[in-house]
Design brief:
The complex is a heterotrimer of chains A (259), B (311) and C (280). With 259 residues, chain A is α/β, with parallel strands linked by helices. Helices cover 31% and strands 29% of the residues of chain A. Chain A has 9 helices and 12 strands. Chain B is globular. With 311 residues, chain B is of the alpha/beta class. Chain B has 2 domains: 131 residues, Nitrogenase molybdenum iron protein domain (Rossmann fold); 110 residues, Nitrogenase molybdenum iron protein domain (Rossmann fold). In chain B, the strands form 2 sheets. Chain B has a 4-stranded parallel beta sheet with strand order 2-1-3-4, with helices on one face. In chain B, strands 6-5-7-8 form a 4-stranded parallel beta sheet, sandwiched between helices. Chain C is mainly α and 280 residues long. Chain C has a single domain, classed as ABC transporter involved in vitamin B12 uptake, BtuC, CATH 1.10.3470.10. Helix content of chain C is 81%, strand content 0%. The longest helix of chain C has 42 residues. The chains are: A alpha/beta (259), B alpha/beta (311), C mainly alpha (280). Chains in contact: A-C, B-C. The interface between B and C is medium-sized, with 28 and 32 residues.
């Protein structure tokens, strides 16, 4: 079983609009798929459909070999870093505790998080650079720190698939780079099948496998070289794209308006 | 064609509602007997005893309600409109009647208030020995006067007089019936008093202050009411005092009425070993208590039995 | 403090204390979920549904606690359902059920010719009249609530903290939410006999809110909530005994005082000890 995620002709309606139309793709295990596209293009809906939180009205979704109702059962093997919603400042939960919640799915009903889970949690906290904040109230963390907390939470359950929804949104420039680095590092180390959704093209530039341009339908899906160049992007975004080279690195500047 | 069908249907609908001549002659015959309305079933019983079949008597309360806060129904105004006489208790017990009378706008309505001219017991008399209980339970005096058989007799005579006014031809009829009933009341009371005299213990506590006239008439003693005010639950302190007092004064029964919440009474019973007994202060509040004399008998006998240690 | 011994020398005193402790326990535990998930209004709605249920029981001549449980669980279920299909908004839906069930209660009372003061006893409760039999039922329900809460401790934690993520992680959030509301309904029914419809909500909210002021650890919330409820019950009962005032209300007022104190002295009011962040 090498296919991790497969969509066949999937159409999804969400909040009375067609969010995804006839989407098809196949993702192999260990692949890193970047998903880009303008605002409102259904990127978040895509991830939720992978998790089975939203059901398509047409087409088939298969995740880790499960489809339809059985997707619920494989959720414990998927790590999800949702779009950022700030944690209630006063909610009584500490960072370590919040991270541990990521292991609940795997533990199942009667087992409690034990030494093993706590050690794992400490480990991922270290990996995301939040080790000193372990006993802090989770709500006290800054935006970037909260993103890293969510990432740690997604990782603690030792997932086989990792889904990230704009993990750098609302985060300052310096931290943004850290998070992107971190995600790629983790992908390399653990060979996680990863879907990385972002609206900033540059974040998927250190791109490993494939990139998808999603605008309700799959308008482009291919290798980095094929998709991430000025001409193709200009056509997809419908606006001029400039390629800038600086300090040995490439930057794509897109006038990212809603198409 | 359609119009014909509609006509037929309408005729059938309205036709079925028309009064039929023979069997259901209620529609045509008019009942010319005077209508008397009372607030309590006991009062209705007295009127019936005097008037017999010559009057139509109805009580607004059937007995299972709480008379202090009875909620009148729309139909009650109608009943008062058709009545020639209303018999009420007064003393604040049936304040709710005032609104009904006003709305009924019945000029010829004669109102008889049982408490007029009666020697009223103020609740404070009862609590004289127990200075902590300063609450004035019933603002105009204790209104449960119908439980005093003397009041019943007095009222019966008044009813005789008024009904005779309406219908002078029946004067003798009413007087004889009234006298007979008063005799029955007297003999019942005498018999019951004898039973009470033989009792070794006569003290009880009651949920509500319904019993001063009853006690005066038959020789019982209500030491204290459990409710500080009607409907008000006693506090923990009140309960403790009650328990102490029951023990000190050798109280032998706890009286509740059918519409009361027994929980607190039961708690006191468990604490002191004294039994709870259910008495009726209004005819009709218990299924077996169907008229006034039965009420007196039931109450005295039941209470006597409890006080002498019976079930 | 001889007042305590005096009070406990009476059977009704001991029963009242035990009953209050049971009610305090279940309410303070479920109360943590109530305030963390913003269910206070739902709790009030369910409490008022209990009144409708009790009235129905009296009308039908059935044990009112049974009809109350049916009404409460039914209302809880409806609230859970409307939470999903948020056309109206859960707040509005609860407001409607709140009013409807109370109106039904009044209607049922109107149908009865018989006046029964016991029914109004459920509005205000009477902890002093609680019987041994009631205590047994209350104790059994307390055990059920504690076991279920313990069983689903981590699931409820996740559900309360972040419902969507809990679902994404594979937890059956629909069922868990329903169980939580079901527990809430049970707790309400157990408690109304003791403190009445009007005061149950207070016991659901105040002790947990007190704990919220004092700690940032989830587990600690349960402990502190329980402690403040128990203290309120004991102090409230004794105080009501000394002053000769209604017990249920005194318990609630003492709990309120506790909350006030906790707010004033709350460590959360000042800076976070670790990161120095000022909290508002």
């Amino acid at each position: 079983m090498t296919t991790a995620v497969e969509f066949t002709g999937v159409t999804v309606v969400f909040q009375q609009t067609v969010a995804l139309q006839d989407v098809s793709f196949r993702l192999e295990r260990g692949e890193f798929l970047g998903v880009i596209g303008p605002n409102g293009s259904g990127k978040t809906t895509l991830l939720k459909t992978v998790l089975g939180l939203i059901k398509p009205i047409q087409g088939k979704v298969t995740v880790l070999g499960a489809s339809g109702r059985r997707i619920k059962k494989v959720r414990t093997r998927i790590g999800y870093v949702p779009q950022r919603r700030p944690i209630d400042v006063k909610f009584p939960v500490q960072v370590l505790d919040a991270v541990l919640m990521g292991s609940y799915g795997r533990l199942g009903l009667l087992r409690r998080p034990g030494k093993e889970e706590k050690a794992k949690a400490r480990e991922v906290l270290k990996a995301v650079g939040l080790a000193e904040m372990a006993f802090h109230t989770a709500g006290h963390l800054s935006g970037g720190q909260q993103q890293r907390l969510f990432l740690a939470r997604a990782l603690v359950g030792e997932p086989e698939v990792l889904l990230l929804d704009e993990p750098t949104a609302g985060v300052d420039v310096a931290t943004r780079g850290q998070i992107v680095e971190l995600v790629h590092h983790i992908h390399r180390e653990r060979r996680l099948t990863t879907i990385y959704v972002t609206h900033d093209v540059n974040e998927v530039l250190p791109c490993l496998n494939r990139v998808m341009f999603l605008n309700r339908t799959v308008e482009a899906l291919g290798s980095c070289a094929d998709v991430l160049n000025a001409d193709v992007l200009a056509r997809l975004y419908g606006t001029p794209v400039a390629v800038v080279e600086s300090q040995g690195r490439k930057f794509l500047l897109v006038d990212d308006r809603h198409i | 064609m359609r119009e014909t069908v509609v006509l037929i249907v309408l005729t059938l609908i309205f036709g079925s509602g028309c009064p039929r001549a023979n069997k259901e002659s209620r529609f045509i015959e008019i009942d010319s007997r005077p209508v008397v309305i009372t607030t309590l079933p006991d009062l209705a019983d007295w009127v019936r005893q005097v008037g017999g079949e010559s009057v139509v008597v109805q009580s607004l309360i059937v007995g299972t309600e709480e008379p202090h806060n009875y909620e009148p129904r729309v139909a009650d105004v109608d009943k008062i409109k058709k009545a020639v006489m209303i018999v009420r208790v007064g003393l604040g017990l049936d304040e709710w009647l005032n609104g009904l009378i006003k709305n009924a706008r019945n000029e010829r309505l004669k109102i008889v208030t049982v408490s007029d001219g009666v020697e009223i017991i103020q609740d404070e008399d009862v609590a004289e020995h127990h200075k902590e209980n300063h609450h004035h339970v019933h603002a105009y005096g204790n209104p449960h006067i119908w439980l005093d058989p003397n009041v019943a007799s007095l009222t019966v005579q008044r009813i005789v007089d008024i009904l005779s006014e309406f219908n002078p031809a029946r004067k003798d009829f009413y007087q004889k019936r009234g006298d007979d009933y008063i005799k029955r009341i007297d003999s019942t009371v005498a018999e019951l008093r004898r039973q009470v005299e033989n009792l070794p213990a006569r003290k009880f506590v009651a949920m509500h202050e319904s019993w001063p006239y009853f006690c005066r008439a038959f020789g019982f003693e209500m030491v204290r009411a459990i409710e500080p005010l009607p409907g008000q639950e006693p506090s923990a302190k009140d309960l403790a005092h009650l328990v102490q007092m029951i023990r000190q004064e050798d109280v032998r029964a706890i009286v509740v009425e059918p519409q009361h919440n027994r929980d607190v009474a039961d708690a006191i019973a468990r604490e002191t070993g004294v039994k709870v007994v259910v008495l009726a202060s209004i005819t009709g509040s218990l299924p077996s208590v169907t008229d006034y004399l039965t009420l007196l008998e039931y109450d005295v006998k039941t209470l006597a039995r409890a006080l002498s240690g019976g079930d | 403090m001889t007042a305590i011994f005096e009070f406990l020398s009476y059977g009704f005193g001991r029963n009242a204390l035990f009953g209050a402790l049971l009610v305090g326990t279940v309410c303070s535990v479920i109360g943590v979920f109530v305030i963390l998930r913003g269910l206070a209004f739902a709790g009030a709605g369910i409490a008022h549904a209990a009144f409708g249920g009790v009235a129905l029981g009296f009308l039908l001549g059935v044990d009112p606690l049974i009809t109350a449980i049916v009404f409460c669980v039914g209302t809880a279920g409806l609230i859970q359902l409307t939470g999903k299909k948020a056309n109206l908004g859960q707040d509005t839906a609860i407001g409607i059920f709140f009013a409807l069930t109370m109106a039904l209660g009044v209607l049922f009372i109107g149908f009865m010719r018989r006046y029964d003061a016991r029914l109004y006893g459920y509005l205000f409760g009477n902890i002093l009249g609680v019987t041994e039999q009631s205590l047994v039922i209350m104790a059994a329900l307390t055990v059920v609530v504690l076991i279920v809460t313990g069983l689903f401790y981590k699931e409820f934690k996740f559900l309360t903290f972040d419902e969507e993520m809990a679902q994404a992680s594979g937890l059956p959030t629909g069922i868990l939410g329903a169980i939580q509301l079901g527990l809430l309904a049970l707790v309400v029914v157990v408690s109304i006999k003791a403190v009445g419809v009007i005061l149950v909500e207070a016991l659901l909210v105040i002790p947990a809110a007190t704990a919220y002021q004092l700690t940032n650890r989830y587990g600690m919330m349960f402990i502190l909530s329980w402690v403040s409820a128990i203290v309120a019950c004991i102090v409230g009962l004794i105080l009501s005994y000394l002053l000769g005032v209604p017990s249920g209300a005194t318990i609630v007022l003492v709990a309120g005082l506790g909350f006030g104190l906790a707010t004033v002295l709350s460590p959360k009011k000042r800076r976070c000890k670790i990161c120095g962040k000022q909290l508002s």
